Amino acid sequence: APVAAPELPAPRRGRAAVRAEFGVAADQPLILSVGRLHPQKRYDVLVDAAARWRERVPPPAVVIAGSGPAYLPLAARISAARAPVTLLGHRTDVADLLAGADLAVVTSDWEARQLFAQEALRVGVPLVATEVGGLPDLVGDAAVLVPPGDVDAVDAAVGDLLDDAPRRAELGRQGVARAATWPTEAQTVAQLVALYAELTSGGAGPTPGADTPSTGRR
Fold first, then answer.
1. pTM value?
2. How many Cβ atoms sit within 10 Å of the Cβ of residue 38?
3. With bands split at pLDDT 50, 70 and 90, how would you rate the model's confidence at 214?
4. CA–CA separation, 124 vs 130, rounded Å?
5. Bond preceding residue 58 cis, omega within 30 of 0
6. CA dihedral sign, ordered 206, 210, 212, 216
7. How high does pLDDT run on average in the chain?
8. What is the Cα–Cα distance from 5 to 35, expressed in whole angstroms?
9. 106 pairs with which residues across the strands?
10. Helix intervals (H) in the chain
């Protein structure tokens, strides 16, 4: 079912100010992921891919906004791999973070209509995401999709986009256009209300009870 991400407020800081918070140089890519630190999100895949990016010139900085039970294992993995990844904890300034980002990444094993993916496409940040659940239908051709749990695929997809500024810009434009086709929160609510009204309208017969055998109708 459609799930509309709430509209983000306008960013309060500009791109340069956001990047300065993390010590990111003007020519250095900033890669962003936002979500609960939970095994489902497979941030271990992102960390392992990011460890390979140390050799890039300039090396990208990766920031992950979110809190959750996987924080300590992820922090240990980042340290062991010497990956250029910073765990930001819970943030209320996702709009600002997106304003400073060059690329958004989702590495989940499963998702429905992933909210961060919606937020990234709405503001034109190119997205690499796993081809799971509702994501392919959500993003269409407006993002690069990779298999879940595949470090090589994430590494290659991100590397290709970092090396191709025109492709990133085109994906950004496609993302904004794709997002314009999604239902708003109000439209989503209206669709669900209409569906419930249809399902509960007349003609459904008596409600099964103790003396009425169920027909299995829904």
1. 0.87
2. 15
3. very low
4. 18
5. yes
6. positive
7. 92
8. 13
9. 129
10. 15-21, 43-52, 71-81, 94-100, 115-122, 135-139, 151-162, 165-179, 185-199
| Residue 215 or residue 167, greater confidence | 167
Whether 45 contacts 154, CB under 8 Å: yes
Residues counted in the chain: 218
Q: With bands split at pLDDT 50, 70 and 90, how would you rate the model's confidence at 183? A: confident
| 69-116 residue pLDDT tens | 999 999 999 999 999 999 999 999 999 999 999 999 999 999 998 999
List the domains of the chain with CATH numbers. Answer: 15-179 (3.40.50.2000)
The residue with tokens 């891919």 is 49
Q: Taking a C-beta distance cutoff of 8 angstroms, is the pair 144, 129 a contact?
A: yes
pLDDT value at position 192? 86
Match 């669900």 to its residue by tokens.
192
Distances (CA, A) of 36 to 3, 33, 45: 18, 10, 15
Q: Which residue has the tokens 């690069």?
A: 144
